[in-house]
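Human: We require from you a standard protein entry with sequence in single-letter code and fold as tokens, and nothing else.

Assistant:
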Amino acid sequence: MTAEGGATRGGTAQDRLQAELDEARRQMAAMAAAHEAFLRGVSHDLRAPLRHVTSYGALVRELLQELPAQYPQVEEALGFLATMDASARRMGLMIDGLQAIARAGRVPLRLQAVDLGAAVQQARALLGGAGDGVQWDVAPAMPAVRADAELFGQLLAQLLGNALKFTRGMAQARIAVHAEPDGQGRVRITVQDNGAGFDGARAQQLFGVFQRMHREADFEGVGAGLALCAAIAQRHGATITAAAAPGAGCSIRLDWPGAA
């Protein structure tokens, strides 16, 4: 009787823990859905005023260019318009980044075994001639991973594009991609460059939305690419981390589920 009572009490406690776990999952799902809805709404609602800024800015430029050149204010006003146009274009890129992050968080995952070597080559092909002159060190044989092929391709394209951007102009630019199984069903993927690098103490800030480690004047971009990578990794149950030092390049590491 005592044993039965203990079993009953144990069963009740287990049921209660399961109910609490289910409720926590529902709350997390609701928060994720609200976050995605917010990103979609912000991205959509900002498009219309941004189009007005760019469209009317172009009209104002045309009017100013019709004025006599002897007015010194005309040249100054055209400079203001150029700054406004550059800022509007940057804002457009930020909206594009938000939309990409929101999309990555809601599209259905089509998980399959993905050939990592082939995926890296496809991502390199997307870079076109931009990757010419770089010393590529890509492991000849890498384990397959379990992933949504489209999202995983986007992630690799972002990582290789970033590595290329921060090694641009170097006499001996080098980008390496290696991967190995960890013996526990996961794959460690490393994308490393010998480019500009940054303060390693700020490495985890790199994956926040619109976080940048360099001035826009030095390197283009709005700081959304690695946030997108973090969102894609999270959906796959993977982790992404970074290590770097100023002038000594950057190393991005992924711990990804392997293909069973």
Observations:
- Helices lie at 2-65, 72-106, 116-127, 149-165, 225-235.
- The chain has a mean pLDDT of 82.
- Strands lie at 111-114, 135-138, 145-148, 174-181, 186-193, 239-244, 250-257.
- The two ends are 46 Å apart (CA to CA).
